[in-house]
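Data card: per-record layout.
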Amino acid sequence: QVQLVESGGGLVQPGGSLRLSCAASGSIFSIYDMGWYRQAPGKQRELVATITSGGFTNYADSVKGRFTISRDNAKNTVNLQMNSLKPEDTAVYYCNHRIATVRGAYALDYWGQGTQVTVSS
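The structure for this 121-residue chain is written out next.
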């Protein structure tokens, strides 16, 4: 069993900042890519940012220069620092870890429960 627990969502004014964190626990042999996705009302889930086990990052064009993804491999954690937030960033944010639970097993995608981010004055 693997669990991902997110924290850090909330209500913030335009131009403000929030930091999201997501920690994985349970039967974990190795974690490969980690990432954040978001889903706004009436829209499909979209990629926000990903980071490989080697630290290479990828961002959606809409968040480049404003968001920073990072990971702490010792704590099985991925973070998302969000600055200069805009109303269009409002969504439920989901973390994703690609995890192999035992040596030699295929890595599978695991998801957090989602955390609401609302940007409004």
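Known properties of this structure: The chain has a mean pLDDT of 96. The radius of gyration is 14 Å.

See the next section for split statistics.
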